[in-house]
Amino acid sequence: KVAAPDHIADYMAVHTFLAGVRMVIAPFLGFYIVQFGSVRLMAGVSLALVIWSIVMVLKLTKTRETARPQT
Known about the structure:
single chain; mainly alpha; flat
């Protein structure tokens, strides 16, 4: 968990908003990449973004575990 219990609703509101923004922008960006590049380029960009997101989540997980007090 990232948010403190009293901020969960705030974090969910930001998450939902950003997911909506992504949903609006992604199809246009995808068609742009395919139009001026190729499907292979689009797959490469998608793969790079997935790997980047995995690395960010792993870093966040490690940071949260080291910051957690030992009991």
